[in-house]
Write a structure and sequence with these properties.
The chain has helices at 14-22, 37-43, 45-53, 68-80, 94-104, 125-132, 138-151, 164-171, 198-204, 213-216, 221-233, and strands spanning 4-8, 32-36, 58-64, 85-89, 113-117, 156-158, 176-179, 208-211. The chain has a single domain, classed as Aldolase class I (TIM Barrel, Alpha-Beta Barrel). Helices cover 44% and strands 16% of the residues. It is globular, with a radius of gyration of 17 Å. By secondary structure, it is an alpha/beta fold. Bound molecules: cytidine-5'-monophosphate.
Length: 235
């Protein structure tokens, strides 16, 4: 599996998205993009098809979490959109993750990569205990959810880059870690708390880093993207 940088396209409309993507028109390397709920709910499947048509790989970040049958059917629809990666919540259980995988697999046996969210980085250990009645430390919960994800046959998890090492230790080097919370050493942290640099994420073993504002809000987004790829993928 090739290490890569995924740009989080957290834009509110197709217009804003394509204004941004036009900057990359002459790039030989078409960036891998993450489309989240805001853009997908605003523009629907049409924006996925158009971005695919422009030659980008797509991580469709919709974090499905429902009964197994519903998730299986929804995944079958997403699979026909020809995205490259999509995700579910590991909290939906091993049975739900297996159903997701089944729904995602096309009649010819091919499918997008499927990864699971362990605990959202916005959930603190204190809230987990008080509101979700989970008494285990957050690190143990994350590794446990990652093991469930592997048991269900998925390809990997979304986690903090700081957790990528322990996930690989528990689930194997081939189990993917897709990690947001990345900032340049000289950059603005904004609302992220547990952050690290692209170079450090590489050292810890992230397979994909998801980078939003350090690229989308940069004065020169193409230069910021190239710097990120150089630091993370060593190109
Ligand atoms: O702008 P920034 O680099 O913080 O964007 C990170 C992206 O990764 C956003 O789309 C955010 O929603 C997403 N994300 C995250 N932390 C998670 C899961 C997803 O920051 N645990």
């Amino acid at each position: 599996m090739q290490r890569d940088v995924i740009i989080a396209c957290d834009f509110k409309s197709a217009e804003d998205t394509f204004r941004f993507l036009d900057l990359f028109r002459d790039e030989a390397r078409k960036p891998f993009l993450k489309i989240g709920m805001e853009l997908f709910y605003a523009e629907g499947p049409a924006i996925v098809r158009e971005i695919k048509r422009r030659g980008h790989r797509i991580f469709l970040d919709l974090k499905l979490h429902d009964i197994p049958n519903t998730v299986k059917k929804a995944m079958a629809v997403l699979s026909r959109l020809d995205v490259d990666m999509c995700n579910v919540h590991a909290a939906g259980t091993v049975e739900m993750m297996r159903a997701a995988l089944e729904g995602l697999t096309r009649p010819d046996g091919t499918r997008p990569l499927l990864i699971a969210v362990t605990q959202l980085t916005s959930t603190s250990e204190e809230r987990m205990r008080r509101e979700l009645l989970i008494d285990a430390p957050i690190d143990r919960t994350i590794v446990h959810y990652a093991r469930n994800t592997r048991e269900a046959g998925l390809d990997g998890v979304v986690c903090s880059p700081l957790e990528a090492g322990m996930v690989h230790e528990a689930c194997g080097a081939g189990f993917l870690t897709v990690t947001p919370g990345v900032r340049f050493a000289d950059g603005d942290v904004a609302d992220q708390v547990r952050v690290t640099t692209p170079a450090r994420a590489r050292e810890i073993g992230s397979d994909f880093i998801v980078v939003g504002r350090p690229i989308t809000a940069a004065a020169d987004p193409v230069a910021a993207y190239r710097r990120c790829v150089a630091e993370f993928a060593g190109e």
